[in-house]
Amino acid sequence: MKACIMCGGEGTRLRPLTFERPKPCIPIANRPSIVHLVTHLANLGFTDIVITIGYLGDDIQKALGDGSLYGANITYVSEEIKLGTAGSVKNAQKYLEDAPFLVVGGDHMTDLNLLEFYRAHMNSSAVVSIGLMSIEDPREFGIAELDANLRIHRFKEKPHPGEIFSNLASTGIYVCDPSIFQMIPENTKFDFAKDLFPLIMQRGLQINGWLARGNWTDVGSPAMLRAAEKWKLQENVSTSVLGSVNIKDAHVAGPVAFGDGITLGSGSRVVGPVLLGSHVTIGDNVLIGPYTSIGDNCVIKNNSKIFSSSVYKGAVIGENTTLSGSIVDIGTTIGDNCSIEHNTVIGPRCVLRNNITVHSGTRIWPDVIIEEGKTVQENILNDAYDTRCEGS
C-alpha cells in the first residue's frame, strides 16, 4: 500500500526550533518525528512511501535514507515552489496514480489504525475519505458534518463563531482515489480543504469521514510538540538500559530508558516515564520528573529539577535551576539558580547566565546571550534570523 507524506512547510510556528531543521526533524523522544511516523506507517503495511520535500529537504533524506531501516521503500519528490497541500501531492502523481493512497502530513504524530481507515475507504464509493476526530476547540481545523453512512455533507475550513456546526475536526489525513488528480491543476497552489473538497462536493461526488480513535496531533505549536512527546514516552512500560549506567545511591522509578554511558549522582531521583540519551551526566540531588526527555551528551548539574521537558543534545543545565514544561535546543547552556517557566522554548546555542527567570510562553531565538540576573518577559529575537513565528 502507498502513502504520501507532505514535508514542504517551513515550520514558522515552531521557531526557533525550525531555523536549522525542517519541522519533521524536530526530536520527539530523541528521534526525528518523521521517523516515528514512517515506522508507524510501515508497521501497518504502508511500505511504499512518497515524501514531498521543500524547506531543508536534504535533512529529511538524511534522517530516513531509502527507508529500508524502517521497513519501507521511500521515494522523494522535490517541490521547487509552494504548491499547497493538494498541489504538492499532484507533483508526485506519477508515483501514486495506480491505486488509492494515504495522505498524511510530515508533522503528524499518531498511533491511529490507518490500515482500518484505508480498508473503510476501499469498501466505500467515496473519492476521498477524511480522518476525523472530536476535539474541544475546532476553530483552527476544518470541520465536517456527516450522516449515519459516514458521508460528509458539509465541510468548513477554520470556522468562525456561528459556523461551528460540528466538533469533528479534520486530522489532515486522507485516503484518496487517483481520480482526484484530474481535478488538481498542475504547477498551481491548490489545497485539499480550501479547494479540492469543495470542488468534489460541487460535482456531486462522495466524500466520506472516518471516525478516528487514538492519539493524533499535527505538532503545530510547542504545546502540541510536548503533548506528542508525552504520549510517546507513555509507550515505554519498563525500564531499559542500552549500555553502561553508573548510579551512586540514586533512586529510579520506571519506566526509564537509559542510553549508554549514563552517570546518575548521589541522592538524585528519576521518575518515569523518562528517556535519557547516551553520555548524559546527572549531578547530585537532581530531580527529573515524568514525561522528560534528555538528549545525548547533556549535563544536568547538582540540585536542579526538570519536569515534563525536552532537553536536546549537548545542553547544560546549571546548579539549582528549575525547568518546567519547556524545550531547550541543542548546545544551549543555562546557568545556576535559573527558573525556566512552563511552555518556554529556548533556541540552539543560547547562553543564559546565572539567576535568570524566563516567564511562561517565552521564546528565545538562536545564539542569544542573556546576562546574569535578568527577567525575560517576552520573546528575545536575534536579528540574524527571521522574526516571524506564525504561518505554516
Concise synopsis of the structure shown:
It is built from six helices and 37 strands. By secondary structure, it is of the alpha/beta class.
Structure commentary:
By secondary structure, the chain is of the alpha/beta class. The strands form 7 sheets. The chain has an 8-stranded parallel sheet with strand order 14-17-20-23-26-29-32-35. The protein has an 8-stranded parallel sheet with strand order 15-18-21-24-27-30-33-36, with no helix packed on it. The protein has an 8-stranded parallel sheet with strand order 16-19-22-25-28-31-34-37, with no helix packed on it. The radius of gyration is 22 Å and the shape is elongated.
Annotate the secondary structure layout:
Elements (H helix, E strand, L loop, with lengths): L1 E6 L19 E2 L2 E2 H12 L3 E6 L3 H8 L8 E6 L5 H7 L10 E5 L3 E2 L3 H9 L5 E7 L7 E5 L5 E6 L10 E9 L15 H11 L4 E5 L4 E2 L4 H12 L6 E2 L3 E3 L3 E3 L2 E3 L3 E3 L4 E3 L2 E3 L4 E2 L4 E2 L3 E3 L4 E2 L4 E3 L2 E2 L4 E2 L4 E3 L2 E2 L4 E2 L4 E2 L4 E2 L4 E2 L4 E2 L4 E2 L4 E2 L4 E2 L16
Parallel strand pairs: 1-4, 1-6, 4-5, 8-12, 14-17, 15-18, 16-19, 17-20, 18-21, 19-22, 20-23, 21-24, 22-25, 23-26, 24-27, 25-28, 26-29, 27-30, 28-31, 29-32, 30-33, 31-34, 32-35, 33-36, 34-37
Antiparallel strand pairs: 2-3, 6-11, 7-13, 8-11, 9-10
